[in-house]
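Quick one, C-alpha cells below:
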C-alpha cells in the first residue's frame, strides 16, 4: 500500500496536475483538453484565485499525484466571514477506496479552519451518491433550505 500525503500544490506543480485535472473534467462530460487545463490552472494559481491541494505518494521523480481538491475563496455577507468553496474534488479511478477522498476532505477542512473561515461549501451532481456518502461521513450537511439557480452564458456549461 502506498503512503499518501496531503500537500498544497503551487505553480511549479501545474504539469503534474494537468492529467488529473483533465481526467476530472472528462468525468463531468468535457472533452479532453490538456492545454486548456494548463492555462486554467496556471491562471488560477498565478492570480492567487484558488488554492489546490493534492493527495500524492512518492518523492521527486517517483512522485505520483492521485487526487486533488481545489478551493475558491468567497464570503458570507450574513455572518461577515470568509467561506471556502470546495469546487473540485477528484481521485483517480484506480485509487478510489484507498482513503484519498477522506485525506483531501480532512486536509481542506484544516486549511479552511486555519484561515478563520465560517466553513466550506460544495455542490455535487444529484446522482453522485458515492461522493454524497463521503461528504456526509465528513460532516457535510445537505442544504434543504435554499435552491441553487444558475445562469450560463455559453454552451460549455
Amino acid at each position: 500500500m502506498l503512503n499518501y500525503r496531503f500537500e498544497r500544490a503551487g505553480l511549479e506543480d501545474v504539469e503534474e496536475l494537468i492529467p488529473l485535472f483533465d481526467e476530472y473534467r472528462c468525468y463531468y462530460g468535457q472533452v479532453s483538453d490538456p492545454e486548456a487545463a494548463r492555462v486554467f490552472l496556471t491562471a488560477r494559481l498565478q492570480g492567487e484565485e484558488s488554492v489546490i491541494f493534492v493527495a500524492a505518494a512518492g518523492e521527486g521523480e517517483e512522485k505520483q499525484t492521485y487526487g486533488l481538491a481545489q478551493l475558491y475563496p468567497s464570503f458570507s455577507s450574513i455572518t461577515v466571514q470568509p467561506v471556502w468553496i470546495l469546487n473540485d474534488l477528484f481521485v483517480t479511478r484506480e485509487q478510489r477506496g484507498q482513503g484519498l477522498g477522506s485525506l483531501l476532505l480532512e486536509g481542506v477542512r484544516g486549511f479552511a479552519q486555519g484561515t478563520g473561515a465560517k466553513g466550506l461549501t460544495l455542490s455535487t451532481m444529484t446522482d453522485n451518491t458515492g461522493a454524497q456518502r463521503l461528504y456526509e461521513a465528513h460532516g457535510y450537511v445537505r442544504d434543504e433550505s435554499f435552491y441553487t439557480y444558475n445562469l450560463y452564458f455559453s454552451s460549455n456549461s
